[in-house]
Amino acid sequence: MENIDPKKPFSNEEAYQEFLELFTNFEYKLYGKADFQVVEKDDVEFDLYGGEIHYTERDMLAISKALRHLNIKWKTEITYCLFPSKNYPGILINVRSPEAPQADA
After folding, report:
1. Structural domain span for residue 69
2. 102 assigned to some structural domain
3. Quick check: helix, strand or coil at residue 65?
4. Cα separation of 2 and 60, whole Å?
5. Phi, psi angle pair for 68, to nearest 5°
6. Which residues of 65-80 are buried (b: 16+ CB within 10 A; e: fewer)?
7. pLDDT tens, 8-36?
8. Which of 3, 40, 45, 84 could form a disulfide with 100 if both were Cys (CB 3.0 to 4.6 A apart)?
9. Is residue 82 domain-resident?
10. pLDDT tens digits, 56-101
11. Residue 10 lies in a domain
12. In this structure, are residues 78 and 87 in contact, taking their beta carbons and an 8 Å threshold?
């Protein structure tokens, strides 16, 4: 494992793939593995679209726990949020570094 640039963590393909696989290989309680599409990606964040699925509290807690382990491994502070999309039906997952731009209020 090489060091990654904390300002551009997803410019490292190995790190990006591990964070992506956390969400795409996760067994969601109600749906199993979700068929996510990466709809936006740059060096500081990426957005996933999985259709109109429901995320349980247990799903979110397990993902957060796994994300903590990846953050320790890669020495990063990656977080995620769920948000309604204007371009896709349902919810997107935004996976982001602290360097990702803030949404306009």
Report:
1. 20-96
2. no
3. helix
4. 28
5. -60, -40
6. eebeeeeeebebebeb
7. 999 999 999 999 999 999 988 887 888 89
8. 45
9. yes
10. 999 999 999 999 999 999 999 999 999 988 888 888 999 999 999 8
11. no
12. no
